[in-house]
Specification:
Structural class: alpha/beta
Distance between the termini: 34 Å
Order of helices and strands: HEHEHEHHEHHHHEHHEHHHEHH
Strand order of the largest sheet: 2-3-1-4-5
Radius of gyration: 20 Å
Helix content: 40-55%
Largest sheet: 5 strands, parallel
Number of strands: 7
Shape: globular
Number of helices: 16
């Protein structure tokens, strides 16, 4: 990255990089890691949802979140400070990948073709199940996983959020091709690049023009991990704002929350029939993706639960 040109963009109240997805691929952890750096600025709201140009008329569980988008360029600019205080400023919005037909031309219009685009992809089978468990955890998903997969078309017609499209969100080939064809600086990493060691983070810092000597590879952590509660009551009990536990001193309250969470948070195995259904659904798209990225994805074809 050219540092001087980056500063020029910053004075215009616009980001110097975008993380466009995919959902449930480690982007929340990346948000916390990068936002902890004093030389990087990311708006407090992780997902700005400006460039996806979504119609704010979603219905169904959790619809308040995708309906809460930045409506215009003036409001979007106001999220970012002017000046040269930061080496990089970013927008992390997973919906940009899914809504690539809207987001690509909008990004080109406002940020140009040389904006840094970072994409993190996860095995689409595991991504779909993680997305499903996220909705179960939030109390939004009433159906078993296989039934939820079968209900996607009906839910789309009823204007449920795009995040309930568990399968379609994992079709990466067309969105990736669109971004690669439309921008000059696109970096694609895999979920395992982030979680298996420092290589992925090192590549991200090099891509964003951040000095490697400031990297703390032990700080990434895991954020927004997916699980389902054995007991909804215990889940409410361990919430940070629960008044019962707040009566305890901070130290004992933390110990009690951690102990209850370890027992109450579980990740059930995926239904084998659902796994087979997803394997068949994604196989051809993954073959295309391999060719686009020129990267071996044979370990994804095995569909082992991560």
């Amino acid at each position: 990255m050219n540092y001087s040109s980056t500063l020029g963009q910053m004075t215009d109240h616009l980001p110097t990089f975008l993380v466009v997805g995919a959902a449930k691929s480690g982007t929340t952890s990346l948000f916390h890691y990068l936002n902890a750096r004093p030389d990087v600025f990311i708006p407090e709201r992780k997902e700005c949802r400006f460039f996806s140009c979504m119609e704010r008329n979603f219905k169904g569980p959790g619809a308040q979140y995708p309906n809460d988008t930045i409506p215009d360029i003036a409001s979007y600019r106001a999220l970012f400070p002017a000046g040269d205080k930061y080496r990089a400023m970013g927008d992390i919005s997973n919906d940009y990948l899914f809504y690539h037909q809207n987001s690509v031309p909008a990004i080109r219009e406002h940020l140009g073709v040389s904006i840094n685009i970072l994409i993190v992809l996860r095995n689409p089978v595991e991504r779909a199940y993680s997305n499903y468990l996220h909705h179960v955890r939030n109390g939004w998903e009433p159906l078993p996983f296989l039934d939820a997969l079968k209900a996607e078309d009906e839910r789309a017609q009823r204007r449920w959020s795009w995040s309930f499209q568990y399968r379609r969100t994992g079709l990466y080939a067309d969105p990736i091709a669109h971004f690669l064809e439309s921008f000059t600086n696109v970096k694609t990493l895999l979920f395992e690049d982030l979680v298996s060691g420092p290589r992925g983070l090192r590549e991200i810092h090099e891509f964003l023009g951040l000095p490697l000597e400031e990297v703390d590879f032990g700080r990434l952590g895991i954020h927004n991990a997916t699980w389902t509660p054995r007991s909804r009551y215990l889940d409410r009990l361990t919430a940070p704002d629960n008044q019962l536990l707040s009566r305890l001193p901070a130290g004992p309250a933390t110990v009690v929350r951690q102990w209850l969470d370890r027992w109450n948070h579980t990740r059930p195995d995926m239904d084998p029939e659902a796994r087979t259904c997803l394997k068949d659904y994604f196989t051809e798209d993954l073959r295309r993706l391999q060719n686009l990225l020129n990267r071996d994805l044979s370990h994804w074809f095995q569909y082992r639960q991560e």
